[in-house]
Amino acid sequence: MSRPRRRRTQESARPSAPLEAENAALRKKVRELEEEREILRKAAKYFAGETRW
Fold it and tell me: Which H or E element spans position 37?
């Protein structure tokens, strides 16, 4: 017995607006965290080099 096929509507094929907004916010947060990590990495490298006399 085969199952009846459902047609995809345009609405179900696209992510909803709240998900798109959440994805955008998460991408922004990832960029901010990556920038903070890079700053901390550079600071750690700077201070590690400065303590060697």
Answer: helix 17-50
